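[09:14] KT: can someone run the structure on this one? pasting the chain below
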Amino acid sequence: MKISNDKNVPDNLVIKSLICFTILLCSFSVSFAAPKGIIAYPVPYIPSRGSLTISDTESRYASTSVTIDIEIYDITGDKIFKKRYTSFPVRWKGYSSSGQRVSSGLYILKVSVEDLASGSITKNIIRFLVKK
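[09:31] RB: done, structure tokens below
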């Protein structure tokens, strides 16, 4: 799935631009909740204390079949984790797809939820901090 509608713009460039923009926003914002009821907590996330939980606070997807695609990017725009789930809450233990523990820093979480009954897709971008 392409992030940008412009076929000449690679996804990693879009993610890197988003990260730069997010860094600027982090200077002015302390809210890490995404719109549309999808949140990630605790923030800051400390891997030794458990999982980062991604949840649907409005329970909009509790009674329907969904696919939830989770992608996590590091500050340089590299995708470090990708996995598909079928229900909320989703828990991430702080490891990359290759099994390495992630380092401290700012990360970008991309959540795409497809409601299989209606075909609607909701996308959210959430920034979060990992601390050791």
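[09:33] KT: thanks! Confidence is low (pLDDT under 50) at residues 23-35.
[09:34] RB: yep, looked fine to me
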